[in-house]
Fold this protein.
Amino acid sequence: MANYKDIKYQFPTSAVTSGTFADGRISESSVTQHAATVDLQPIKSDVTALALREATNEASAAFNLPNQFIETFTDDTNLGTQTDGDRTSGHWGTVGTATSVTDTTLSGNAARSSAEAKFGTYSAIFDGSGDYVTTGELDSIANVITTGDWTIDYWFMEKGNHLSDRHFSIGDTANGTAPVITCCYNSSTGFNFYHYGDGSQVDTTVSGYPSADTTSWFHHAIQRDSATGKIYVWINGTYLSSFDHDTSLMPSTTSLKFGVRHNSVEYFDGHLDEWRLSNIKRYTNTVNFTPATSAYTADGNTTLLFHFEDTGLEDESALNVNATGTLIQSANTVASAKTKVGGTMLYKDNAGTATLGTDLKIYFSCNNGGAWTEAASYNAITPVYSTGIKQVRLGETTCTSGTGVIYKAVWANQASGSKETQLHGIGINY
């Protein structure tokens, strides 16, 4: 006879015609002793990272989700205190006041002219015979032109069609014995870009330029992409071609000249206006664009900018990067008191390499800035964006209880050309 414990009874549910069964109860201790503790912070951070990426893709300025806030710096709507820095083209970084180069020298009949100007009242004019402008030694140019991404763009108007009208030249004055770059508009072949150095020379001709005339302004853009190692060329916003860029032939100590080749031959006959050197790619490789419809303004990515409005053509300017800066989100009232904040941020090493927690710190407050606590940790999320923008998970941080959840970003050790850290987006969850 089987043990009664082994006997199983099957009671047909169809036999139950009325009444109810008592609720079955399982003790709390029987459940919790077998349940693993779940840390939801990584899940929250991943959701915030996805929301931040979507906000970036959709070019949203900022928006609130349930228990989350996303900022991608497309406008100033939710930016509160901004000290020694500014929002520029989808990111925030430290910038200072514009500076001017004071050692500009005019040679021949080079001067400002009110006869033609793309923007403003004046442009620089050269007569094609002994005219040029020298800015002197500018190591800041070498810091940009030899490494990373850069863009040179400007406007020109031909007054005489010559075979080699040099618009500008960057490098030492020796003829082909020291590194130099120079370019011109060649009326018979198009754009010429020259590399010189240690007796070596690379002469690149890009065809497809429209025929220059003596009454039209042309926009010229030359851009280097460090990822591809190539230089890309546009005329009037129309993409023409690309070619390899030999960094070994780039100048390390430089002078900048307008209207002439580096060794004072092949002069330009015409006008130049709005010449700018940037330490970023301003345009998308191989893609057409619409040239600027107003005068350039210096931003945190401008290394040098010439408007040619001053009598000595010395009104060139660029925005320095301040060593320190602070950004604080504007007040943000939430539905209930919070004591925990975490999130995700996007940042870029525009120059140098930032140490998070030193060169860039993120703080949280749950009482609209009454008390601040630095993010508990900075943990990289891989892979990074193709543009070099990095994702970092901001560890869950305990803050003083309140209904005003905001962030603060603090920069230190920033310096033009050597360490520039840009905050491209931040999402916080609470």
Notes: The chain has two domains: 41-95+322-429, 101-319. Helices lie at 28-32, 41-57, 139-145. Residues 101-319 form a domain with the Jelly Rolls fold (CATH 2.60.120.200).
